Amino acid sequence: MDLKTFKIGGVHPPENKLSAGAPIEAAALPKRAFIHLGQHLGAPAKPIVQKGDKVRVGTLIGAGEGFISAAVHSSVSGTVFAIDAVVDASGYKRPAVIIDVEGDEWEPTIDRSPELKKDISLDKKAIVDRLKEAGIVGLGGATFPAHVKYMVPEGKKVDTLIINAVECEPYLTSDHRVMLERADEVLVGTRILMTALGVERAVIGIEANKPDAIEILSRKAKDHPGITVQALKVQYPQGAEKQLIKAILNREVPSGKLPLDVGCVVNNVGTTVAVYEAVQKNKPLFERIVTLTGKKLPRKANFLVRVGTPITQLIDACGGAPEGTAKFINGGPMMGKAMVNTDIPVTKGTSGVILVDEADARRNAPGACIRCAKCVAACPMGLEPYLIEKQAEYALWEDAEKEDAADCMECGCCQFTCPAARPLLDNIRLAKTTVMRIRRERSKK
Fold it and tell me: Considering only CA atoms, which of 103, 43, 110, 41 is closest in space to residue 73?
């Protein structure tokens, strides 16, 4: 098997795909749903419901405002209890629609039949409009509004669609299960996106640690002209856009540029299924697959969860948090972040929740940098992490900008490899955000 990969940096942390064998199961409905209006990149949605309103599953409750924004729909049926600030995964209070759940009545416009709809009747513009109406965002973590990505500017030419089915983060298995259980929807969704872009070529990139997914999609793709499957070496962060493009197409995305600038668009495999549902079934994005896992968690699971469901409910469904749990990670262990509590609701960007025990959560005391350059060798962006860390420590922001701190993708490879346990990623994040703020202020002058 010809395994492709990117050429610079990367690491191979323990995979710990403990939930890979757990089939997708529907999570129980919450008694009360907390649906954030800003669960996507860009401007938060504007609430169009008020206290006391009756809503169904799929009812529009937040209208996307601004060029980069996304619509928000009710994931439950019931009565709007309030529109109030609710704590999100980062610990900040954000506007949300709170709904008391009463039954499970769906909007009649949603096609709930299990029948696979292969024929695509919509044209390019109609597909993009449908993605916007359905509130489709990237489910790989970035939550970028999908319709914006497919509005290719005049003068730009795209020749290849890449479906990101890598799932390189340890522990997470939601995309793996989607490929195994919904391969047909993945392929039809891919054809829909090819139509939206006007391209005849699509490549589905899958890491070699998912041979069952590679087999089933390769076999079924034979019935879909233009779609191929590319097996990839297991190498973190293989699923990052720039690294994936380099691995599959051997194209380099320049600093400050987008995949569009090298003739391609990248779309997460879970998002691709959501696209199928939006276009073929008229179903908005109000639920997603969430992995619940941890070395000592009694039961590992991949839940189909309604947005707004408290994470505590999912943990309880897996037997509850084991004694000694020190952290609850929202996302993967490399790029995810610790949650302030587990009462926060699931959003469109919640790919998984990892329960980490004290032994794995403990940070070693940082030592002095020994200039071993392991962080340099591991950085997939070709940066010098040890140097940017020092620049952040001494607030040398102009120097950090010259060292391309803004190009950091926050993958954590540098900190993972550091033998001195330096807080490299923490300081580089500070440098990155400061440099980007300085650039914004400079552009306003």
Answer: 110
Per-residue model confidence (pLDDT) at position 2: 77
Reported as a single tens digit per residue, the pLDDT across 279-297 is 999 999 999 999 999 999 9
Residues 366 and 331: beta-carbon distance below 8 Å: no
- The pLDDT of residue 1: 59
Q: Say whether pTM exceeds 0.85.
A: yes
Residue 160 identity (one-letter amino acid):
T
* pLDDT tens by residue, 116-132: 999 999 999 999 999 99
What homologous superfamily is domain 124-281 in, according to CATH? NADH-ubiquinone oxidoreductase 51kDa subunit (3.40.50.11540)
The DSSP output letter for 53 is -
Q: Residues 145-172: pLDDT tens digits?
A: 999 999 999 889 999 999 999 999 999 9
Among 3.60.21.10, 2.160.10.10, 2.40.50.100, 3.40.50.970, name the CATH number for the domain at 30-101: 2.40.50.100
- In three-state secondary structure terms, 430 is helix
- Which tokens go with 262? 């090298």
CATH class of 287-361: alpha beta
Two tokens, residue 45:
């949605």
Provide the 10 A C-beta neighbour count for residue 385: 27
Domain spans of the chain?
A: 30-101, 124-281, 287-361, 374-444
Nearest to 381 by CA among 237, 187, 225, 266: 237
- Establish how many alpha carbons lie within 13 A of residue 117's alpha carbon, considering only the half-sphere containing its beta carbon: 17
Instruction: Tell me 92's DSSP state.
Output: -
**CA dist., res. 236 & res. 144, Å (int):** 22
Helix extents (H) in 379-423: 385-393, 397-402, 413-417
Q: How far apart are alpha carbons 284 and 39 in whole angstroms?
A: 14
